[in-house]
Amino acid sequence: MKQVLIIDASPLFREFLKEKLTAERVGVEIVHGRRDAFTKLISLLPDLVILDINEDFDDLIDFLQKKQKDPNAKSIPMIIAGPLIAREKVATLGQFNVVKYFTKPIKFDIFFESIGRILRAGFSIDVTPCMLEIHLNHNIIFIEIAQGLNREKIALLKYKLSEIIDTKRLENPKIILMMTDLSLSFIDCSNLELLFDNIIADERIQKKNVKVLSLDKFTRDIIAGHPQYTGIEVVTNLSHVLNSLIDSDPSATVTDMISDRILASSETDADQGSVEMRFYSDSGVINKDEDHGTMLTVAIVDDDAVIRSMLKAAFATIGAECKLFDSGSEFISANNKFRYDLIILDIYMPGISGFEILKKLHQNPDSPPVIIYSQATQRQAVIQALSMGAKSYLVKPQKPEAIINKAIEVLHAKI
Predict the structure, then answer these.
(1) Considering Cα of 334, then 356, then 260, then 238, what sign does the dihedral take?
(2) At 78, which helix (H) or strand (E)?
(3) 224 HSE (CA, 13 A, CB side)
(4) What is the pLDDT, as a whole number, of residue 301?
(5) Furthest-apart CA atoms within the chain: distance in Å
(6) Is 132:150 a contact under the CB 8 Å cutoff?
(7) How many whole angstroms separate alpha carbon 335 and alpha carbon 361?
(8) Residue 258: which of 170, 378, 339 has the closest Cα?
(9) Is residue 154 classed exposed, middle or buried when 0-12, 13-18 and 19+ CB atoms within 10 A define those classes?
(10) What is the DSSP letter of 261?
């Protein structure tokens, strides 16, 4: 049996890895701390070492040099997952038999493909087209699923939810599962059951706080027919979902609740996490810098020149490239010429409005996530934008760091 040693991995990272590798009949050992890790490495002599790093690069080199000096451990291949580092540093890792360096968050289908090549084993990966995205507004976790149900992403979802609850210290997490684009049948039964089982796997998620936004009769029948799902509610109206989950003072209006809870941005909302919910197989396009970080491309669509300039400067601080558009029509004309990672969109602009752009983007399942950045605070505008696929709604004005944090949160919510 092949053996893999996992060192210093985060809970989400190690638990999902262990589950997947064990299912593929690969032995897994997990260890924390470099001193204990080296002792385990020498005693086990695994076929592969997977190392998760967050600390200083010099500490990593010390460990690798120690491994390199041992004649038995020297030839063991390694995969490292960590933060974005300079190209020249990535280049130095090859001398230590580091086969791959993955910048977090990781696309897991590429990750397992690399493991399979090293272990000379074929891993079964579900390639069912599936867009699964997660984002957080206060204590409400939004999960959006489109196209289909992918077992890999559903399995990863369980750990991702627990990571969010732990990281954000959510005391009463609430779930909105949006599945309005899915039409399912009996062949999807096992995947649908796995989805609901994984959502409620964490005991901190109460079934009464899980709302499923769906028009699908089969989904409703599955929930109604399984006693273990009693309490989960299927609804067809987003405003009903929001009203039922947002805690508020009895005297507060719906508009107040939406403004305070859904529109509010907090610097603590951002959560990069360990993995992406969007896989390489979703697009079939990989950036040449994928193994050690990519250049982020952001489309900014706003008729206010000051806003465009401010957003461009803000995104430049994280090395992002911005494409600026002063009208909806200009963006629509150029949309097919470029591939964006994120769109920052105003609602009310001369000519083509933000709603019309959202409608066009919604027709393409591979469209990038959209953050609405607008002065509009009307309840109807907010609900309409979220219903049409916007991942977040920020009310002008916001501090630049708040916008960047929200962008990072939305981008890293993709599995």
Answers:
(1) negative
(2) strand 78-82
(3) 8
(4) 96
(5) 72
(6) yes
(7) 10
(8) 378
(9) buried
(10) I
Lowest mean pLDDT of 8-22, 43-57, 132-146, 398-412, name the range.
398-412
Does residue 230 have a pLDDT over 80?
A: yes
d(CA 140, CA 246): 8
Average of per-residue pLDDT across 185-208: 95
Which is nearest to 341 in space by CA: 392, 278, 292, 403? 278
Question: pLDDT tens digits for 279-318?
Answer: 655 554 444 444 444 446 899 999 999 999 999 988 877 6
Structure token digits, residue 242: 């929001």
Tokens of 309: 């300039």
Q: Is the pLDDT of residue 267 over 70?
A: no
Region at 273 (left for phi over 0; alpha for psi -120 to 50; beta for the rest): left
pLDDT digits (tens, 9 = 90+) for 237-248: 777 666 666 554
Look up residue 182 and give its two tokens: 């899915």
State the residue for tokens 């699964």: 132
Instruction: Round to whole Å and give the CA distance between 175 and 322.
Output: 33
* Residue type at position 40: K
User: In angstroms, what CA-CA distances link 283 with 104, 107, 131, 166, 333?
Assistant: 18, 12, 10, 30, 22
Contact 392, 137 (CB under 8 A): yes
pLDDT single digits (tens) 74-87:
989 999 988 887 76
The residues, any chain, with a CB within 8 Å of residue 55's CB and separated by 6 or more, are none
CB 371 within 8 A of CB 410: yes
Secondary structure class of 76 (helix, strand, coil) = coil
Q: Are 167 and 271 in contact (CB under 8 A)?
A: yes
